[in-house]
User: What shape does this take?
Amino acid sequence: MKSYLADWILPVASPPIPNGAMVVDDAGRIVFLGARAQMPAGTEQTIYESSVIMPGLVNAHTHLEFSDLDAPLGKPGIEFTKWIGEVIKFRFGSERVEKSDAIAMGLEQSARHGVMAIGEIATAPVVLEDYQSPLPCPMALRVFFEQLGSDDAEVAQKVADLEQFFAQAEAPLSSACANQVVAAVSPHAPYSVGDCLLNELAAVGVKRQSFVAMHVAETLAEREFVESKTGPFIEMLTSMGVWRPAAYGNYQSILAILEKLSECDSALVVHGNYLNAPELDFVAANREKMSIAFCPRTHAYFDHARYPLEEMLERGINVAVGTDSRASNPDLDLAQELVEIHRRHPDVAPETILRMGTANGASALGFDESFGRLVQGREAHFCVRRVADVSSPLAWLENRA
Ligand SMILES: [Zn+2]
Assistant: This one.
């Protein structure tokens, strides 16, 4: 048996343990979690000085295919539709590394930052082998196959591709890989997914008892598009030659889109930056199956209005945390997202912020108690953070990198 000792252990599922010890058996299960003085004798000890041990962090929303970027695209405060133009230019540019390599880089970066579970948005063609690169610790990945388009003639093919993706995910993974990969579906966003495609993707999600994720209420322009079919997104779609008004007749409100997503077994609302009170009430009323992924530094990058975090938490909504991609974020360091939340929302309790980056994310992605929490009897998926200040378990939230 191995034991891991640190100034603090933060199990998340139970109170912080000062001078803590965690003992793990040969099968990787936690057999003791408590004070050093009470730990069983005869273990192989690893002592982490000036450190906290906590569950592996959960990045509830990212797009690993952009992990080869050194810096976000555009500049801080860029208008969202202009940024999308930059993303398209980059995606189809000639200087890119292979997508599989970018994903491998993203997995490696995530592991380095103590992330052990990811809600990944993947674009066609999705190759599940891309998620099997060997890592120091196995990762749990919920891979959402992202689809978009408003041409009804293409819907059948997109649904077939999605079905094939689910079938691919059911096949056994190569034995060399210990990463856990689970398939899910993602209609991209209200402005990029026509009614027909949204309905069909949701139908596959329902049939497959799958998770669904969608970027919703990310910008005010998106609300304008949904509610009145005017504004920057019309200009953007028109300039791309894909504005098809007839394809967007059914969903005239953000609420209608949330209702559609709620038909699936579990729905992750990505961003939700501009959800209003009735929309938040709806997510709260469906909290058993709906979560929201907040991406704090991406939120700051676009200079959005204050995030309605307190309003979400007051309603008991399960708020998870994501980095979003390196196209709008400097890195995949989830702990820095938590630091950013603490800085922008100082009244939210540090314990709540840690829970958002761990247990809430695991719940949002449907991973069991082995992820996002340290629980006796469960597998130990943990990370270690070196800290300058050990006077309290979450003092590190004050430290901006
Ligand atoms: Zn995203």
About this structure: The CA atoms of residues 73 and 87 lie 7 Å apart. The domain at 57-371 is CATH 3.20.20.140 (TIM Barrel). The chain has a mean pLDDT of 95. The chain has two domains: 2-53+385-398, 57-371.
